[in-house]
Amino acid sequence: MQKISGKTIIILNVNGEEKEVAVKPSDILLNTLRNELGLTGAKPGCENGDCGSCTVLVDGWPIKSCLMLTVEAIGKKILTVEGLEDAPTQMAFVHNWSFQCGYCTSGFIMVCHALSKIHPDANDHIIEEWLQSNICRCTGYEEIRDAIKSVLANNLISK
Question: Domain holding 49: CATH number?
C-alpha cells in the first residue's frame, strides 16, 4: 500500500492508459478525472452519491466517482464514457433518443454498459434495479429502458 500525504504523484489506469496525476489524500475521483485529466464526461451533480451523473466503471463495476477517493483507484481499471469509443450502449442511446438535456446521460450509459457486460441476459427486474442507481429529471426513463433492452437483444443475436 502506497502512503499518501500532501500532494503525491500516483499512477491511474484510465481508459486503458497509465496516467500520472498529483493528488492529495482527500481528492475524489470525480474531480481528478475532470480537473487533472480533462475527462469531463462524468458530471458533478449532487456530489453525495444520489444522482449518478458522475458514474464511471472501476474494474467493470459502476461506481459513483463523487464517493470514491482517487487514491482508492490505484491499481484498478477506470473506464469513463470517453473510453467507450462508440460502444453499442452509446449507439443505442442515440437510436432510442434516450436523452434530453444530456446531463445524466454519461452516467446512465456507464451503468447500462456495465449491465450489458455483467448481466447480458438481464430481465426487466434486473434492468429496473440497475436503473434505480441514477436519476434523470427530464425523461420518463422509457427511452433509457429501450436502449438497454436493444443492447441486450443484440448481444443475444450476436452469440
Answer: 3.10.20.30
C-alpha cell at 8: 503525491
pLDDT by residue (tens digit) across 109-126?
999 999 999 999 999 999
Q: Which among 64, 83, 102 is the end of a domain?
A: 83
Residue 129's domain comprises: 88-158
pLDDT digits (tens, 9 = 90+) for 137-159: 887 789 999 999 999 998 755 54
- Residue 115 within a domain: yes
The phi and psi torsions of 20 (rounded to 5 degrees) equal -90, 130
Say what angle helices 105-118 and 124-131 make with each other, to 10 degrees: 140
Query: Does residue 142 fall inside a structural domain?
Result: yes
The pTM of the full predicted model, rounded to 2 decimals, is 0.92
